[in-house]
Amino acid sequence: MLILTAQQHRALDQATLQRDGISSLELMERAATAWATHFVERYPDKSREIVVLCGPGNNGGDGLAIARLLRFEAYTISVIVADIAPASPDNQINRKRAKDVGVHIRTLRENDPLPSFRKRSIVIDALFGTGLSRPIEGYWATLIEHLNEQPVVRVAVDLPSGLRTDEPSDGAVVQAHTTLSLGYPKLALFSPASTTFLGDWDLVSFRLADPLQLEEVDESTPRMLTTGPVAQLLKKRHANDHKGTFGHALLVAGGFGKMGAAVISARAVLRAGAGLVTVHIPRVGYEILQISLPEAMCSVDEHRYIITAVGDPGAYKTIGVGPGLGTRSATQNAFFELLDNFSRPMVIDADALNMLAQSPERLGDLPAGSLLTPHPKEFERLFGATENDFARWELQRNKARELNCVVILKTGYTSIATPDGRQYFNTTGNPGMGTGGTGDALTGILTGLLAQGYAPANAARLGVYLHGLAGDLAARDLEQESLLAEDLVSHLGKAFKKLHRAAEDH
Length: 506
Fold this sequence. Notes:
The protein is an alpha/beta fold. The protein has helices spanning 6-20, 24-42, 58-72, 89-100, 138-148, 195-198, 227-231, 259-271, 286-292, 329-341, 350-358, 376-383, 389-403, 438-451, 456-478, 485-490, 492-505; strands at 50-54, 77-82, 104-108, 122-126, 153-157, 178-182, 200-204, 223-224, 248-252, 276-281, 297-300, 318-321, 346-348, 371-372, 406-409, 415-417, 423-425. It folds into 2 domains: 6-221, YjeF N-terminal domain (Rossmann fold); 227-234 and 244-505, 3-Layer(aba) Sandwich (UDP-N-acetylmuramoyl-L-alanine:D-glutamate ligase). The longest helix has 23 residues, at 456-478. The model has no long low-confidence stretch (mean pLDDT 96).
């Protein structure tokens, strides 16, 4: 699904008006109806008082239409209209319509006493829309800060007021508990810096023109990963396939005190569908790995505690390197020798990334199509600091092009940048995955997919989505607080099953 800028959303609205032969007021009604339907499903308790805060623009017009529609659903609802500027024509019409059905509307003027709200009431934020271009200041900023302190449930229409769509936000921003975003997703929804303001967010779809027809949309427009298209990436298996068909992967992982990283990652390689995995480990890990994962083969380093030499990697379809390795000089030499002797795409994670950060001149030696999987701190060590999430995403895309590699930036909504300039954001996964070993599991999944012959960009999209989906299924069964990396790996089969079903239905 496309992730559109505020300008692209405006162009899409105009394209919809032309295609359907409707007015902007009718399009507003279409959006408000979809939003109100979604709200009713989420908040069915009609005993709670609802207050809608409306601004003078089209976001406020949405809010006024929503108030009228919720009045029809028998909610106790009132509206506060902020007298910030002259109201738009559609806003004025919806204000009259709301009054006509008995919605109580009061006007809030600058320097009026701040409104009070009953405890446990719901406040719907429709003050400022996605066209905001400067920080909210003065009395209206004070109003937002006041609202954030109230013991109410705050629900934002489209985006919380004060949150900018395509760039970092400053000044006052509504801290919503729920954001119901209209139409197509916005980039701000995926920003870690937005988490405090968005709360739990969801998309409210309604009938719009095809954004792919817009001149403003091209292949570089970011996309959100969704089940249907991801499921179509799955390779079909055939009756005469065998372990050789599904590839032999080499995993270079583990060290003294960190053999668990190698075990988790190796198990994930096989659970992701690879035919064979050999794990190169220090001698101290031999018994651990053979007992923990009898399906894996072992290649044992001469050194007891660290990895110092891997040997000829030519027999392997792909290599995953990094989990639990450490960054000793001998291990660095072994890693860089591996880069010199292997030309197919690899998965580079954890300490392998840290070693590259220490020797950035070796970044140019990465095999084309390799998958780099940094978390934000590793990304910063590799490529430098950025001022905000938007700048970091741009740097991520630039580095993917420059290195001819796939850069997977692991956050709550992991982003994937490919060498052709495309960018994807993942929506599977949950906070329960914030525990040791889940990154090692991702390394294994990606390595297993590359071993089966998935193209690097497809392996990244499918692997990241599967990783999060398995985490969601594990959290459903075990609760987020109790989730372990091993639980995620053990739920990969259920994640594959869900995607296979989606592929059949698509």
